[in-house]
Write a structure and sequence with these properties.
The structure holds 2 protein chains of 2 kinds. Chain A is mainly alpha-helical. Chain A has a domain of about 25 residues. Chain A contains 2 helices and no strands. In chain A, about 25% of the residues are buried. Chain B is mostly helical. Chain B has 3 domains: about 60 residues; about 140 residues, Serine Threonine Protein Phosphatase 5, Tetratricopeptide repeat (Alpha Horseshoe), CATH 1.25.40; about 80 residues, no CATH class. Chain B contains 14 helices and no strands. In chain B, helix 1 crosses helix 4, helix 6 runs antiparallel to helix 7 and helix 9 packs across helix 11. Classes of the chains: A mainly alpha, B mainly alpha. At the A-B interface, helix 2 of A face helix 1, helix 4, helix 5, helix 7 and helix 9 of B.
């Protein structure tokens, strides 16, 4: 019985450690925001302002290297 | 990302690494910070971004009212939101509210108005990539530029503001011209783009900003972009060397800094690569 309880306690400790580790921010996460040098794709614009653009019939051309705006 | 990279560099100018990590309780270790400091391609974690933002805001508070910068944050969150959501109507309401606030409070708080105009400029700027109709494109570009010009007119009266803030507003105007010209297929031959480029002394001001912030590779890259498009050999060398000084990784023309294409993958740099950086004839 004592061994069994120790086993349960160890398992709970492992679970807690894994949970803590996952809360640490891995470097692969997306940054929450970007305040300088913002690039918005044509797809984003079409999504937000469909009434302003002719996205349906003629998708806008996309340039990967537009100048970014600064804030 | 240029932002976190630049912010860490600004903060590092104040502190040693040890002092840096003493500024917070829980956060990235020295090794992680050094990686974010050294490598322009490094993608910082959300936690690192939030922490660096907080420290940077504390040590380098912006000149504009925090409340208006907060509205900018809200707008950025809309525009970068989950792809399944459409915040078009919210953005239009935000636009109406800002216009109302500008009318209501004109001249009482100049920097508040300047930042409101800046945000209206950003909203129009972000719509430019989707337009193909030339009339609509010109109308939108004119609106974006008018908003940025109004912001700049106010900012230029504020003598205590840093040159960097004015540079950013001018750069946004130039970017409106260039990005719209690209949509029309005229690129840098576009007269309005060239006129503003010369009027704003873009390369000269870019060099001034780089002398203050030599780590700012995004600004150096834009200098190189225009030097290349204008076939300006001397300035191509100048701005390319600035990039190399930020990181030797830029010696590889296929190198991709964070959220930015490699020089070799952008047609704006084609002339510089073919004629200055990698000329085919030996001895050049």
């Amino acid at each position: 019985m004592y061994k069994f309880l120790r086993l349960i306690a160890a398992a709970l400790l492992c679970l807690q450690l894994i949970s803590c580790a996952s809360e640490q921010s891995p470097e692969s996460e997306q940054p929450s925001e970007q305040k300088e040098g913002v690039t918005i794709s044509p797809q984003d614009v079409c999504r937000h302002f469909p009434e302003h653009v002719d996205c349906k019939d003629q998708p806008a051309s996309e340039d990967d290297d537009d100048m970014k705006r600064l804030r | 990302m240029p932002t976190t990279f630049n912010k860490i560099h600004r903060l590092k100018n104040l502190w040693t690494w040890e002092t840096f990590i003493e500024q917070y309780g829980v956060g990235p270790d020295i090794k992680t910070l050094k990686t974010a400091y050294r490598y322009p391609h490094h993608k910082p974690s959300r936690h690192t971004v939030a922490l660096v933002d907080k420290l940077h805001d504390r040590e380098f508070p912006g000149p504009f009212p925090a409340e208006v910068d907060g509205l900018m944050d809200i707008y950025e969150s809309f525009i970068r939101s989950d792809k399944k959501k459409d915040y078009g109507s919210e953005i239009q309401k935000l636009e109406s509210y800002i216009s109302f606030e500008i009318e209501r409070g004109r001249s009482q708080l100049p920097l508040r108005d300047a930042r409101f105009y800046w945000l209206l400029g950003d909203i129009c700027f972000d719509r430019i990539p989707a337009y193909r109709n030339v009339d609509e494109l010109d109308r939108l570009k004119a609106r974006a530029i008018a908003h940025y010009q109004q912001a700049l007119a106010i900012i230029e009266c504020e003598t205590e503001l840093s040159e960097l803030v004015k540079y950013k507003a001018r750069q946004n105007i130039l970017a409106c011209h260039l990005n719209a010209a690209k949509r029309k297929g005229s690129w840098v031959e576009d007269k309005e783009t060239l006129d503003y480029f010369e009027q704003s002394d873009f390369l000269g001001k870019t060099k001034e900003v780089l002398s203050l912030e030599p780590f700012n590779w995004n600004i150096a890259r834009n200098g190189l972009r225009f030097a290349s498009m204008l076939h300006d050999q001397l300035n191509v060398r100048y701005f390319y060397n600035q990039l190399i000084n930020v990181s030797k990784l830029f010696q590889n023309l296929d190198y991709e800094p964070y959220e930015t294409p490699a020089l070799s993958r952008s047609s704006d740099f084609q002339w510089a690569i073919e004629n200055v950086l990698m000329p085919s004839t030996p001895g050049n």
